[in-house]
């Protein structure tokens, strides 16, 4: 039973590898066809440029010629960039790269070109951007620090502590005044009640 299981796994792995290679080959073929079409377009633009240059030579003082030629050159630049992008995709599919000097196709991990011997420089990595948390701090002047220190040493409170203490003392004073007023009111009420009682007895 184990034998058949292993055989089945190997067959499955072989199928996946074959399917993967087939998929890559199909994609590479499509990319190469697209590259061929783009190269054909570039050759056509070359012909158009040559024809336009010759027409300008014959007619003389053709004001539009220079602008038209410039536009066609830009078109070639765009097509060439697209071809480069497709070539890179093809190389990625095959795990290969181009020599930085002679552009020969070489292995991706190769340090030197097998064709021209040129050393392959490692691509520069972009520096990582670190996020820095900004913390707001309140700076206390040296004079204030020294004043607070002297006050602590001499037994004095700082300004904020004095304000709190003064407010507390005022609150206590007000409460004591209210208590005194309440006691006086109670005494007056008692006296008034006694006076009314005496008057009623007299009557």
Summarize the structure.
By secondary structure, the protein is an all-alpha fold. 70% of the residues lie in helices and 3% in strands. It has helices spanning 2-59, 65-93, 142-153, 159-202, and strands at residues 96-98, 105-107.
Structural description of this entry:
With 203 residues, this protein is an all-alpha fold. The protein folds into two domains: 2-107; 158-202. The protein contains four helices and two strands, in the order H-H-E-E-H-H. The longest helix has 58 residues, at 2-59. The termini are far apart. The mean pLDDT is 75.
Explain the layout of strands and helices.
Layout lengths: L1 H58 L5 H29 L2 E3 L6 E3 L34 H12 L5 H44 L1
Antiparallel strand pairs: 1-2
Helix pairs in contact: 1-2
Key traits:
single chain; 203 residues; mainly alpha; 2 domains; two-stranded antiparallel ribbon; 4 helices; 2 strands; 3% strand
- Low-confidence spans: pLDDT under 50, at least 5 residues? none
Global Rg: 48 Å
- Give the terminus-to-terminus CA distance: 129 Å
Give the total of beta strands: 2
- Counting helices, strands and paired strands, the structural category is mainly alpha
Describe the largest sheet.
2 strands, antiparallel
- Residue fraction in strands: under 5%
Mean pLDDT, to the nearest integer, reads: 75
What is the topology, as strand order, of the major beta sheet? 1-2
